[in-house]
Amino acid sequence: MSEVVHTFTTTVPRWQPYVVPVDFATATDEQHAAMQTTPSNKGISPYVLTLAHDPETLAVRSPLFNLIMYGKDGLAGSERELGAVAASVVNRCVYCAAVHASRFNNLTKRTDVIEAVFADGLEATLDEHLQAIFDFSARLSTTPPEAVAADAQSLADVGLDELEALDLVLSSAIFGWANRLMHTLGEPMKD
User: Fold this and answer.
1) In this structure, are 90 and 181 located in the same domain?
2) What is the mean pLDDT of each run of 10 residues along the chain (191 residues)?
3) Are 51 and 112 found together in one domain?
4) Per the domain annotation, does 173 fall within a domain?
5) For residue 178, which of 118, 74, 78, 100 has the smallest C-alpha distance?
6) How far apart are CA 61 and CA 116, in angstroms?
7) CATH code, domain with 151
8) Dihedral sign (CA 61, 62, 64, 70)
9) Distance in angstroms (rounded) separating the CA atoms of residues 57 and 70
10) Greatest CA separation found in the chain?
């Protein structure tokens, strides 16, 4: 029997949509075209198949997501992933937190950061560089945002330049949107 997952973990749960996803085999040409650039270019997930009900939006969303999360310049990929994790913790998106925590762990080859975040939440204590990134992203992700000039200054103080700081804003912001979208379209399930 399946049950909804409520706790943060690096084990990625199965995401179950509330609506029937598009059937790839019978999708329209417009839906197929929109699904060509999937988030992370890893395959067509139930989430993407659900978003394919609106192919015009999906055709814009996926390339934007890929540029923000996988761009070659600016912030390191692991730090973008930490920003996504922080936003997902604030928004209680268990699915996104698991996916991006796993990616952070894979990119950094360390698990202590995510273990601290999942154990202590927004009170997690990290090294100075990662703490500035995590805190900024978390404060930016609250509603209304709690990030202030001192939070932005803390990014500069740990060595982030303007492009890196912008990348962090974008990765946090897109997850503020993505988390809320995932919550309204489905839920994470443990089989």
Assistant:
1) yes
2) 86 95 96 82 84 96 93 96 98 96 97 98 97 98 95 97 98 95 94 76
3) no
4) yes
5) 100
6) 31
7) 1.20.1290.10
8) positive
9) 20
10) 53
